[in-house]
Amino acid sequence: MATITLPRREHYLNISYGVRSWLLTTDHKRIAILYLITVTIAFALGGLAATLIRLELLTPEANLVSSDDYNKLFTAHGVVMIFFFLIPAIPAVLGNFLVPIMIGARDLAFPRLNLMSWYVFVIAVGLGIYALLTGGVDTGWTFYTPYSTSWANTRVVPVLIAGFIAGFSSIMTAVNFIVTIHKMRAPGMTWFRLPLFIWSMYATSLVIILATPVLGIALMMLLVERVLRVGFFDPALGGDPLLFQHLFWFYSHPAVYIMILPGMAVQSELIANFSRKSIFGYKFVAFASVGIAVFGFLVWGHHMFVSGQSVHAGLMFSILSFLVAIPSAVKVFNWTATLYKGSISLQTPMLYAIGFIGLFTIGGLTGLFLASLATDVHLTDTYFIVAHFHYVMVGATVMAYLGGIHYWWPKMTGRMYPEGPARASALLIFIGFALTFVPQFILGYLGMPRRYHVYVPEFQVLNVMSTAGASVLALGYALPVFYLLASLWTGKSAPANPWGASGLEWETSSPPPTFNFERTPVVVAGPYYFRGPITEQPPAKTTVQEPGGEVH
Amino acid sequence: MPGIPIMPPQASTMAWRVDAVFFALSGLSLFFTLLVFTLVIYFAIKYRRKSENEVPEVIHGDNRLELAWTFIPLGLALAMFAWSGIEYINLNNPPANSMEIYVIGRQWMWKIIHPDGQEEINQLHVPLGRPVKLTMTSQDVIHDFFIPAFRVKADTVPGRYQTMWFEPTQVGEYHIFCAEYCGTQHSGMIGTIYVMEPSAYEQWLASGGRTQAQNAPQISPAQAGELQFATLGCAACHRPEGGGPAPSLVGVYNSDVKLEGGQTVKADDTYLRESILAPAAKIVAGYPNIMQSYQGRVSNEQLDQLLAYIKAQAPAAPSGSGR
Question: Which of A103, A114, A451, A515 could be bridged to B181 by S-S, CB 3.0 to 4.6 A?
């Protein structure tokens, strides 16, 4: 040691090396990196399927793939993107990395459970991708019965099991977050000093724990009917096909909130920190998350307005669906108001955040067309739906995810990414998104059904426009992979707080030490306080005056 | 913009009513989108960071604003719910004088049965200005009968009946799409609605539904047969590449076919015809006897077209043996 002139700072990345030190790690930060790699691979595979779908749809006829292969492609795209990318992406990568740091804890409450959740996830992804590559499945990600139980001749069973297993991984992560947030907050970190990221993660975890078991049950029943011919859903066996839809959407509608709430979590951090303002109406935004989580459980029937559900049920689900839009609107208004009289920096993460507001606003408002009964009858099962949920789940969530990856990249890797290409990718994604999906809204209104391999010729122009847009989008998504990887070697070293941002994660070094903080932080200020650190500093003053205090 | 369609035809009494809700929602959405976009862009420019260490004054929020942007959207949302809900109730209440037509969905065709027993496949002829109530079910999986020009759609669910109604307001031909994913040929499960003047409709009924066939563009019997092959659902089992529940028919014509029980027959016209009308008579070795008879369901003309199509399929290189 004596000969070293510059002391090498020990952090979570350099404390140990080798494959074992990663595969057997219980450090939440390393597990986050493992998840990052896994979901990026899943995103690439799902994106490949999307590319083939868009290429096939360039012409009304079938020219690239057969109908069976086309049906397998959109199923693979849906299953991989939803179960293996969108649901885990923000909680398992950013949440895993940040939840303990943001509340001033050394790790999650159950570090080994956390590692186990990754292994369970990898088993699910491996099984799912194996089944999709060796034969594939053609039921659509919705597995509607009786097609999936009695008619499909494809590999339904392994994909169901993969979805079932992936659910356990989600539940493990959610339990970990809830216990950690309840029990492991640093001294002074009261509930209303929590960053909004934590509030949203908490709400997401509740939804995961309450909804995922229902999906597990539904998938198991489907499996039993398919393999053992016990009639739950197939009328030929004495079952009811609508029962499956109720069970499936009871999970899968809240699943939309499992995907978007974490996006909102990131969004609140980005908007506050890049305008150096406390989030306007902090408590309204926090309770809006909880409101969305609660109401999100009561709207599943809006997927079934033309399925044969009664008119009365339709009316109830419609009004509840309109109501769930309100907390989302409240959030958008509050983010916008946060910018007012702020100090706004348009660095890459903020560009993503502004893009998020744009895409989420359009995605949310077009949802009203589907909550609304008469218009839903015309628009459901068409490309209007496809465009709407891509705006929300892909547009908004992936925008937030990438914004978050850029924002916390210096913290995660200790390196800065290059600002130029990063801004270009944010812009390409926003423009590519509009070019891809705006034509699909029109296609849906015209009546083009989703999951159509061939279509009537009058829909071609809009499909060509959509595919052209998708190529811009693909470029925007591919770009970050290259410059972010390159930045690991060529990027500038990141300081502890490169943004002048507020939050506990910016008061420890980049990258953080294994146990996150040199000493347990004592929190003395509310979130989004920009006039100094929010923790008690080492040469402790005798009287600590609360600079920000709780937010009122 | 010429060449880019933006609106489907409004061809039923409900079409413009649904469109009115659609446009009202579009107007509201546009207003809020523009409001948010304008404010975000304006703030982003006006309050750009002037110096690196700038820290703006703290604003925690404003309860009156919060209440305003909670309750104004809430009021608008409830109003839209009520309006749209009323139209939905209308969509679900067929007038008492509706003409009743039965629709049966199956992989991958629509079978339509008129009140007087007239049957159609993938076509539906209806008179102008008369409400039509469809009573629908499915023989196999869930399908969905969707007529964009009428703004109506309903799933056809096996084991139950669903109803749906419309009253056409414009003579013309409109698409029928299957809107619920139902397997391989889902996107081929489409058809046409012909809205006719009442007099033309009566004529069509009287002539046994031949009008359209006469007006149809001239195509070869083999091409017509290919269409029949797809729309009758033959392709579901007799997959060209093999591997389905029934043998591939590529190159079957005039070949020797092994039957259950060791016999061999030549697949000539008579054999093929018999196999369509009475499939159980001679069963191909290795395949279960699951095909239903098409006796009375295909006309002689259609049968000839099917045979022409089967003959036209040149023997291909032997494909995979299935599973």
Answer: A451
